[in-house]
Amino acid sequence: MEPSRLKERPAADRRMIKFVLMVNRQGQTRLSRYYHSVELSRRAALEADVVRYCLSRKKDQCSFVEYKDFKVVYRQYAALYIVVGITDSENELSIYELVHNFVEVLDKYFSRVSVYFSLQSELDIMFNLDRVHIILDEMIQNGHIVETNKSRILAPLTAIDKMVES
C-alpha cells in the first residue's frame, strides 16, 4: 500500500498504558506488567530509572511527570508506589483514579490491603502475585482500560476460590 494511502491511526489507538509497576520504598519491583514491547535487557534499566525518579520526588510535587517519550503517573500508598507509564495523549487523571481503583480492588480481595499499604499487604502481594496479575488483567488489556467495576473485576477470582475450596 502506498504511504499516501495509509490512514493515521485513530486517537483512541494512540492513548494507552505502556506499563504498570508496583515498587517499595527501597526501589524493589514487586509487580511489573508491560503492554508494549520492551526488551528484557532494557526493562531493568527502565524500571530503575523511572522508580528512582519517582522516589526522589517530594510529596508536595505533582504525581504526573514527563519522562523521555512518555508520561509517568504514580501514587504512593505508605510503603508502596504504583507507577504507570502512559502515552502523551492518555488522560493522566483517569490513570491516577485507575490506580486508586486498583488499590481498592486489592483491598476488597485481600481485606488487609488498605489505602495505607503495610508490610503485611506487601507480603500479600508478593505471595499472591498470580492473583494480583489476574486483577490487573481484568482491568487493563492491551494497554487499554477495559473494566473498573470491582465486582466484575473480582468475579474470576471468586470463581477460582470457590473451585479451590470445594
Automatic annotation (TrEMBL):
Q: Which residues form a coiled coil?
A: none
Keywords attached to this Swiss-Prot or TrEMBL record, sorted alphabetically, are: Membrane, Protein transport, Transport
* GO biological process entries: intracellular protein transport
GO CC term (a single one): cytoplasm
Note the subunit structure.
Adaptor protein complex 4 (AP-4) is a heterotetramer composed of two large adaptins (epsilon-type subunit AP4E1 and beta-type subunit AP4B1), a medium adaptin (mu-type subunit AP4M1) and a small adaptin (sigma-type AP4S1).
Function description? Component of the adaptor protein complex 4 (AP-4). Adaptor protein complexes are vesicle coat components involved both in vesicle formation and cargo selection. They control the vesicular transport of proteins in different trafficking pathways. AP-4 forms a non clathrin-associated coat on vesicles departing the trans-Golgi network (TGN) and may be involved in the targeting of proteins from the trans-Golgi network (TGN) to the endosomal-lysosomal system.
Q: What is this protein called?
A: AP complex subunit sigma
Can you name the source organism?
A: Oreochromis aureus (Israeli tilapia)
